[in-house]
Automatic annotation (TrEMBL):
Protein name: NYN domain-containing protein
Residues in NYN domain copies: 3-44
Molecular functions per Gene Ontology: RNA nuclease activity
Pfam entry (one): NYN
Native organism: Waterburya agarophytonicola KI4
């Protein structure tokens, strides 16, 4: 999807329907609102070693 804060409203709607929301992105290009709205956030920078091994 994207890291724009405008998506936070959509995530809130999905979350209110009982879905868990997970965001995986570079923190530097993701709005704080999007991160706070998610149930789980993973910064790609933290898992880059695992990605490169695959």
């Amino acid at each position: 999807m994207g890291g724009d804060g405008d998506f936070a409203c959509a995530l809130e709607k999905v979350s209110s329907q009982g879905c868990q929301v997970e965001v995986v992105s570079l923190k530097s290009s993701t709005s704080e609102a999007l991160i706070k709205t998610s149930d789980r956030y993973t910064d790609l920078q933290d898992i880059i070693q695992d990605i490169c091994k695959a």
